[in-house]
């Protein structure tokens, strides 16, 4: 997955997103909003939906309407720790838990051998179903919400009369120069703020595969005094599931009955017997050797000390834990997709080395790599 920019808030800018009401009344009402949300990923979908539910005149601005609700990385929700977060979002009438209950292909509560406090509800999701349901909810079933397809290049800010704030944010400036005023601006830009993709030693600017990064907006935040950092994420190479030998891998079924995520639901949409299987394989000494012999062509390893990382890479695990074999979960991406997500194999080796590494895993000796992993 792409590098993600995160932001540290400087002292004295706590009221950055407060609104200067006097300046907004001079513009047409069509360009006035209570809440403007920039970015249409998971956070943007939840933020815009929540604001609209509260009766706020809300605008969601995204690069492409077709990618609203896109599951850019792992097609799953929940797990240890994250399952609790989803329950909290659901308790606040959020979307993700309810949408998971109508788009999952396998449901499983992790850590069931321990006490309920550490159980981790998890669902493997059909990418296309999830995105379709999220878009229907936002585009058709959410009053007070407008969705706009446009790049956001800058923030509208004005001098603050309040000594505790440097500037006041009163809207956004789109790529074509259009100014849109808003009482509150919420940035949910994900991997797009000066985002870049690393594969081996190759570096290219991108928000995610096929999408340009947001440079202007990131520059504005820096100019306002925010300190920008780099949160490194990571994705594994995607595998053609039709080329995997599942017979030599461990098959794992979903729960029977599946436990829904949302407190609003008594059951999920799929029958227990129709859930897809996940499979388990492991790394081995040959995989370890490929990684250790090629650290010099891996930009991620050389930058490991320059910032936090979300998903631990296979390189990091092998360097840290030596000869230990690591689990690789082969997870289906949907009912109508042959793409398999090898969870646990996040790496940024050059593409040809990733192919070698994949084919040293049991069951993947003849596997075809559809897309290389990246950082």
UniProtKB/TrEMBL annotation:
Entry keywords, A to Z: FAD, Flavoprotein
GO molecular function: flavin adenine dinucleotide binding
Domain annotation MnmG N-terminal: ranges: 34-373
Cellular component terms per the entry's GO annotation: cytosol
Matching InterPro entries: FAD/NAD-bd_sf (IPR036188), MnmG-rel (IPR002218), MnmG-rel_CS (IPR020595), MnmG_N (IPR040131)
PROSITE patterns for this protein: GIDA_1
Pfam families: GIDA (PF01134)
Co-factor(s): FAD
GO-annotated biological processes: tRNA methylation; tRNA wobble uridine modification
Similarity comment: Belongs to the MnmG family.
Name assigned to this protein: MnmG N-terminal domain-containing protein
Organism: Timema shepardi
């Amino acid at each position: 997955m792409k590098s993600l920019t995160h932001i540290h808030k400087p002292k004295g800018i706590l009221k950055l997103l407060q609104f200067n009401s006097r300046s907004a009344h001079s513009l047409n009402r069509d360009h006035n909003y209570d809440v403007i949300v920039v970015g249409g990923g998971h956070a943007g979908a939840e933020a815009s939906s929540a604001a609209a539910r509260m009766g706020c005149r809300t605008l969601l601005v995204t690069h492409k309407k077709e990618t609203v609700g896109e599951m850019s990385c792992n097609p799953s929700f929940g797990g240890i720790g994250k399952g609790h977060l989803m329950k909290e979002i659901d308790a606040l009438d959020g979307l993700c838990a309810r949408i998971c209950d109508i788009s999952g292909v396998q449901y499983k509560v992790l850590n069931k051998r321990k006490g309920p406090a550490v159980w981790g509800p998890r669902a493997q999701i059909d990418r296309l179903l999830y995105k379709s349901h999220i878009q229907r909810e936002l585009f058709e079933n959410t009053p007070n919400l407008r969705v706009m397809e446009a790049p956001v290049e800058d923030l509208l800010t004005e001098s603050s009369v309040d000594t505790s704030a440097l500037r006041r944010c009163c809207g956004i400036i789109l790529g074509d120069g259009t100014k849109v005023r808003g009482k509150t601006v919420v940035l949910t830009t994900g991997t797009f703020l000066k985002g870049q993709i690393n594969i081996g030693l190759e570096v290219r600017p991108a928000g995610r595969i096929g999408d340009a990064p947001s440079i202007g907006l990131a520059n504005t935040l820096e100019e306002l005094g925010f300190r920008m950092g780099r949160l490194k994420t990571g994705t594994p190479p995607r595998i053609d599931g039709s080329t995997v030998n599942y017979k030599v891998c461990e098959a794992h079924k979903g729960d029977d009955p599946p436990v829904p995520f949302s407190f609003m639901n008594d059951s999920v949409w799929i029958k227990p017997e129709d859930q897809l299987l996940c499979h388990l394989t492991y790394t081995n000494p040959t995989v370890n050797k490929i990684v250790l012999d090629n650290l010099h062509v891996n930009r991620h390893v050389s930058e490991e000390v320059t910032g936090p990382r979300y998903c631990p890479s296979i390189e990091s695990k092998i360097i840290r834990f030596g000869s230990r074999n690591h689990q690789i979960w082969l997870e289906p991406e949907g009912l109508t997709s042959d793409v398999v997500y090898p969870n646990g194999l996040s790496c940024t080796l050059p593409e040809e080395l990733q192919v070698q590494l994949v084919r040293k895993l049991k069951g993947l000796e003849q596997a075809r790599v559809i897309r290389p992993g990246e950082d």
